[in-house]
Structure formats: C-alpha cells, structure tokens
Specification:
Elements (H helix, E strand, L loop, with lengths): L12 H16 L4 H11 L3 E2 L21 E2 L9
Antiparallel strand pairs: 1-2
Helix pairs in contact: 1-2
The structure holds zinc ion.
Length: about 80
C-alpha cells in the first residue's frame, strides 16, 4: 500500500463542512449528494486518489468518511 506523501493535503474540517453543504444543495437540485460534494472539493484543488491509503482519522474503523482519499498536491495525480 502506498504511504501518504507528507506534502499531500487532506481537506480541512471547514472545507469538508462546506463540501457537505454543497452536497446537500445538489440533492435539492436533484443531482445527488456526491455531485455537489465532489465538485466542491475539486474546485478547491482536491481530487480523489483511488490508490491512496484510507485517510480517515480512525482508518475507516466505523466506515469511511465522505472525504476519505481526497487529497491536494498528490504526486503524479492525473489531472482530469
Ligand atoms: Zn477511509
């Protein structure tokens, strides 16, 4: 398993809260939670790194958090 590079950043707590609000807004618009959530994080420069290790505070013990595996400045990340 890959280790998280020290300089790759996870979203801050406030950014996650904002993304969750964006997700709830997109539910109201009929797009579903993830549409708003993921687009908000991508607008901030984050992307979901599929091969990254779990980034949850408890390593996913209680299930993965919405922001699991979202990082900024991940090396060699594909720019979509
Ligand atoms: Zn996780």
């Amino acid at each position: 398993m890959l280790k998280q590079p020290k300089y790759a950043l996870s979203p801050t707590a406030n950014e996650v809260i904002d993304a969750e609000f964006a997700g709830f807004s997109s539910i109201d618009e009929g797009q579903g939670f993830w549409y708003g959530f993921e687009n908000h994080l991508m607008a901030l420069g984050y992307e979901r790194i599929a091969e990254a290790p779990c980034s949850c505070a408890d390593n996913g013990w209680h299930g993965h958090q919405s922001e699991c595996r979202w990082f900024r400045d991940w090396p060699n990340a594909s720019k979509l």
